[in-house]
Amino acid sequence: MTDETVTSEVVTDVLGHPWRAETIPLPPDDEGEVVATLVSRTADQPTEHAVLHVHGFADYFFQAEYGEWWLAHDHDMYAMDLRKYGRSIRPHQTPTYVADLEEYFAELDHAWQRVTERDGHTRVVLSGHSTGGLVVALWADIRKPKELAGVVLNSPWLDLQGKAWMRTLPADLAIDRIGRLKPMRIFPREVSGVYAQSLHREHAGEWDFDLTWKPLESFPVRFGWLRAIRAGHARVHRGLDISCPVLVLSSDRSVFTTALDEDAHTTDIVLDVKQIRRWASSLGSNVTSVAVPGAVHDVVLSRPEARERAYSEIQRWLATYVL
Predict the structure, then answer these.
(1) Phi, psi (5° rounding) for residue 171?
(2) Which of 39, 72, 103, 225 is the 20 to 30 Å CA partner of 233?
(3) Measured distance CA(108)–CA(78) in Å, rounded
(4) Which neighbouring-strand residues pair with 10?
């Protein structure tokens, strides 16, 4: 990992004081300037513990309640908006696009250096949701930093959802070929917008988030990006060696509804939780997998009863394996 601190700008975050946002310059790519953003807040008392969280696809960090839970449990809170997501999107960029998931390792390396060497944390939990769960699992497997105390994965994307033929060798070969030859070609899919509507307080949910950074209709999926995702899935399926304790949280059910109904509020309507549970054991030798009844895709955005259960499971896991 890098041991140098890139000069960065720190401002009050869009979440409001005392949340801070630190812009981290990264090497430019073929679209131009690239940055990542590290959002942070410190606990009331000095602590050696911290958590570093990474969001999912078509997402960014707005889950202040999740951060406040960690703060209340003696952890300073850090969260990344990866390049081309949320606070880090620049007008000249294709939102969400990378051709290789290891491109994200640069910002994770810089963030880790800030959390540990600069800010002095010696026990750090790495947290990731959905696509972010895949990214942090791959990073933890390769980097294995000495300060890594545990990994919390919230509905990590460990396989491609949908019909079985989409996970066959011919399908993977087609994605690989198109992703190499026409990486910016858009993968055809239908997005109902129901998931984001079920969360946003102006629709049927209780949460406030920026609909330009997390649109109801998501962002286009491009073949080059999907090729990178499938390469990440393949690495998980071959087996990772995350050396610290891992907690995998998910809903207990998936229902791929396109209606804003009760299932939209009580199940995972984005990923297949059976796949999450199937591949969880491939992450390392100390993996705890918990299915939370009534949870949605982002477990900590579920209705109160389900998310309270999720927080109880995190607390139990921390006390048993990490602290």
Answers:
(1) -65, -45
(2) 39
(3) 11
(4) 22
Taking alpha carbons only, the member of 65, 247, 85 closest to residue 155 is 247
Pair 141, 166: CB distance under 8 Å: no
Note the helical H segments in the chain: 64-72, 105-113, 131-143, 169-181, 194-199, 223-238, 262-266, 273-280, 304-317
C-alpha distances out from residue 221 to 11, 95, 179, 260, Å:
31, 10, 11, 23
Residue with tokens 């630190």: 22
Q: Which residues contact 209 (CB under 8 A, 6 or more apart)?
A: 60, 62, 199, 200
CA distance 124 to 41: 14
pTM over 0.90: yes
CA distance 316 to 249: 13
How does pLDDT run along the chain (323 residues), one tens digit per residue?
544 456 678 999 999 999 999 999 999 999 999 999 999 999 999 999 999 999 999 999 999 999 999 999 999 999 999 999 999 999 999 999 999 999 999 999 999 999 999 999 999 999 999 999 999 999 999 999 999 999 999 999 999 887 787 788 888 899 999 999 999 999 998 889 999 999 999 999 999 999 999 999 999 999 999 999 999 999 999 999 999 999 999 999 999 999 999 999 999 999 999 999 999 999 999 999 999 999 999 999 999 999 999 999 999 999 999 98
Integer angstrom CA distances of residue 241 from 29, 155, 222, 255: 31, 19, 29, 31
Residue with the two structure tokens 């079985």: 164
**Is 150 in contact with 128 (CB distance < 8 Å)?**
no
- Terminal-residue alpha carbon distance, the chain: 25
Interatomic CA distance for residues 285 and 251, integer angstroms: 22
d(CA 70, CA 82): 21
Q: What is the CA radius of gyration of the chain?
A: 18
Running DSSP on this structure, what letter comes out for residue 319? I
